[in-house]
Records
---
Amino acid sequence: MEKVKYISMITAIFTQITGIIFLFINIKIAFGLFYVYFFSLLVLLVVFIKSRMDEKKEDDKNDYRDY
């Protein structure tokens, strides 16, 4: 999961910057890059939610408050 998170972050940063540059050069390529940017943000959001759910399950399993 960590590799997917880092790849998605780097892709989001790279496509956002490149998309802004291509807005002045070719608008069709810029829109394509922004689609890739939003897709990478969506993947990043799913990875963060999944990792949070895994942490929550682990915390619930190791809950020793009811002694």
---
Amino acid sequence: MTKDEIIERCRWARDHNESHPSQQWSTGEQLAVALVLRDRSWLDSTNHTTETATDMVCERAGLSAFEFTGWLNDIRAALESEQR
């Protein structure tokens, strides 16, 4: 899971699925998109907390908890700059 892959998934979710992840994606991709787009309702519907989702995304993306914050912020910044 690279930043670019998650950015593309987030764009799709935002543009085609009311900002919710697609069930067709891997669990890691779904969780990453939900975290980036702050989709608490989706996380709740899958019985994930922000913490459990973060742990799984870190594991699948090969990130430490410290690196995750920067990764998440970079993706959000890229998406926000597109909407200006």
---
Amino acid sequence: MTYAADRIYSEVAYVAYHFHWSLEEILDLEHGERLRYVAEIANINTRISQGR
């Protein structure tokens, strides 16, 4: 199974924007680990936008 390049760029950009990690650091993450960080960042952003 291949993973769409657009999806990888989106995930990398999202994590890099919020954590200021390098491209190498983010791409060194296992796919599942990277997705977990994306989900956690989204949860943080949701809580902030809801004032929690």
